[in-house]
Amino acid sequence: MNKSNSKSLSSFKGEKRLDSGDVLKIQVTGATHRIALSPSTDRFHANWVGGDITGMTLGIVGMGRIGYKIAQRAKAFEMKILYHNRNRRMTENKELPGALVEEIGGPNGVMEEHLDFLKERFTLITLKELKENKEELAEKIVCIFNWGNKPDVDSELLRCLPRLKVVASAGAGVDHLDIKMISSFGVKVANTPHAVTNCTADLAMTLLLVAARNFMEGNRQHIPQHFTIKRGHVQTNSIQVKTI
Questions:
Q1: Could you say which DSSP state residue 110 is in?
Q2: Apex CA 47: angle with CA 74 and CA 72, to 5°?
């Protein structure tokens, strides 16, 4: 700091001291988002400082993912949050219902891309966690999220989940589920019949072209035998309604 300007901010007429908590928050967010002044800046004029937002009320129209993230950050400023949304959001103070999944990640687990959406609505419990702590976790599970036909939904599993309401299958088919047996426990079955319509049509056209152009034969001739594809989910994109 320049010695000629080393007085406290509060000693300057027309200048005022920033709240220390707000200063720290500005420094953290400013540094991470590259919002900064000159390194030699050691004071702000009163007109630059603005007002204190700590404890104020913040209104959010549309509590989607962005609105929710803004609300989370506003809590650090002890702000009161008012929002308008079609549905009431679960609060962090209220325990989210549990959803049973086979695992998170891996060849049979829920994809990482789906985690944010699921965790906004459920506390995810893996099958391994349930087996290790059945007495505490079984009561919390109200949904089984069946991804890639996993976990296996049988009578033994259903008997140990007294609050289970629905088995949600992430796919169009339900032939891997014993609907009659599941219904006998008073549990409903849900699926996503049209979620992969475009993807399936794209894949059918791909297979048609692969077969017509002998793609696999050419691939075997030109790709080294030691070449392997890592197991797991391969993320692809649809060409539906794209511009060419």
A1: B
A2: 5
